[in-house]
Amino acid sequence: MKFNYQAGNGWQSDSQEFDDRGQQFGDGLFETVRLDGHGVAPLWQMHIERLALGLKALRFSDAAVELVLHAVDSIAHPPGMTACKLLVTRGVGLRGYGFSPDLMPLVTVRYFNAPEFSTSPYVAGTSDVVLSTQPLLAGHKHLNRLEQVLARDSFDAEWNECIMLDSSGIVIEGCMSNVFVKLDGRWLTPEITSSGINGVVRRWLLDTNPEINVQNFGLPELNSAQGLIFTNSLVGIRSCHIFDSQTLDVAPEAKRWQLAYQEMFE
Amino acid sequence: MKFNYQAGNGWQSDSQEFDDRGQQFGDGLFETVRLDGHGVAPLWQMHIERLALGLKALRFSDAAVELVLHAVDSIAHPPGMTACKLLVTRGVGLRGYGFSPDLMPLVTVRYFNAPEFSTSPYVAGTSDVVLSTQPLLAGHKHLNRLEQVLARDSFDAEWNECIMLDSSGIVIEGCMSNVFVKLDGRWLTPEITSSGINGVVRRWLLDTNPEINVQNFGLPELNSAQGLIFTNSLVGIRSCHIFDSQTLDVAPEAKRWQLAYQEMFE
Fold first, then answer.
1. Which residues of chain B lie closer than 8 angstroms to A112, CB-CB?
2. How far apart are the C-alpha atoms of A201 and A218, rounded to whole Å?
3. What is the distance in angstroms between the CA of the first residue and the CA of the last residue of chain A?
4. CATH number, domain B122-263
5. Who's near B187: CB < 8 A, 6+ residues apart?
6. Which CATH architecture has domain A2-112?
7. Which of A50, A104, A204, B175 is most buried (most C-beta within 10 Å)?
8. Which residue is closest to B30 within chain A, CA to CA?
């Protein structure tokens, strides 16, 4: 089920104009939201906050941010659907990178059913795609995702996820998720200030577990970890038990967090 | 005037599906091509070569590359139009970053009239947007262009172009063009191996003027340059006479190259 909403002008047909700046330049943002059985998104507020931060980082005007958030908030959740993807673009512009602040943004919503929750642990490896460093875009779920497309395409056949590093060897994230590691009894997650997406499950875990530290680490640490988890709005929290062909323990905290996340959607 | 061509399936309507991977992830490439009065593109072969290299870098299958190049080559040039933008995406995929090699790529062509050639020199400055480093994508005219969108938006009112640096201070390109500088009597242009687009006018200038060197340089050199030019398929070759509020000479070679470029379109 798909709907388009041109902020300010209401719902439209289910296709975009060629000249939409999402298609031309990846000039926009997205959110992938898990809903409960009643069509309610338990972490909706965090999605909206991240979207608003992203719109500001992409220099949408205050008026455009307001239009977009109003459009997004007016979305009717169809019963039975358990996930949606929101896609916000700067709208249909003239030729060239420049844009007028009064462009009408386009909000598109796509409903689908989220995968069933699973507790089976992941097999993961290290991606050969090195993430670039761009503090102006770090944290935001923008539409420039070619690095993830290339990383996903170079998965080994048995992988469920991969670890992506930046050029200084810092672990940033998974291709489709954020990453948390238990080292010397402490849980850490990378800073996400120069690369990567600040995921909603990441934020929820940090909010609900203040003992987790935001601190960078490298690849060598992962091989001696007492726990490694990947987090993603749709699949929730998944432990990794085989990383780069080495076996890792599944930490008890991971199971607890996994259940706490899943319970929100019951 | 707009046409869509789904490679292999012929021409379609003038809008894209929401699920097109161009819109979702910036998963595609573009070419902006200047045509002469007969609808012929003098540098067509260079555009096609760059597009083919980009498709391979984005891991389009050999079969997909062939389909795209056939579609692009079958484009009828409408008389009177002097420019076109080709946009190639990986096509309509399922949810997620992964893709099947047998996805049907989408080629979209948009005709418009190029700006009249002008010899008036540019005013330029230095962008505060630092380009990220990604050798896997460098050189290719892909659809992940948020850095250029941000750079264009931070132009001073009097600028025609800007210089963009990488994080090590190397000059990479202009926001919309490649850059050439004359230092100690020698013309240089940056390598474009870790960031930036390998422009068609850049390649034409290097091919026709073997005395130009491909060599990196920094910002300090620009202030003592004996010439600074920006190159772009649509506007051709433009000298810069005011850079960061300092006056620069307009080099005689620049005028000669400018005319040689323009003559191809007569």
1. 95
2. 22
3. 23
4. 3.20.10.10
5. B180, B181, B209, B211, B212, B213, B227, B253
6. 2-Layer Sandwich (3.30)
7. B175
8. A24
Q: Where are the domains of chain B?
A: 2-112, 122-263
Q: How many residues does chain A have?
A: 266
A25 touches chain B (CB under 8 A): yes
- Side-chain half-sphere of A64: how many Cα atoms within 13 Å? 24
A60-74, A150-164, B235-249: range with lowest mean pLDDT:
A60-74
Question: In chain A, positions 201-240, which contact chain B (CB-CB < 8 Å)?
Answer: none
Least confident interval from A4-13, A108-117, B15-24: A4-13
State how far the Cα of A30 lies from the Cα of B18, in Å rounded to an integer: 13
Model ipTM value: 0.95
Distance between terminal CA atoms of chain B? 23
Which A residues in the span 119-158 are in contact with B, Cβ-Cβ below 8 Å?
129-130, 132-134, 136-137, 142-153, 155
Q: Which residues of chain B have pLDDT under 50?
A: none
**A-B Cβ pairs (cutoff 8 Å, strict):** 160
pLDDT (tens digit per residue) in A177-233? 999 999 999 999 999 999 999 999 999 999 999 999 999 999 999 988 999 999 999
pLDDT at position B29 is 98
* B88 and B51 Cβ atoms separated by less than 8 Å: yes
Rounded to whole angstroms, the Cα distance separating B219 from B164 reads 10
**Residue A258 predicted with pLDDT over 90:** yes
Task: Identify which of B98, B108, B144 has the shortest CB distance to residue A18.
Answer: B108
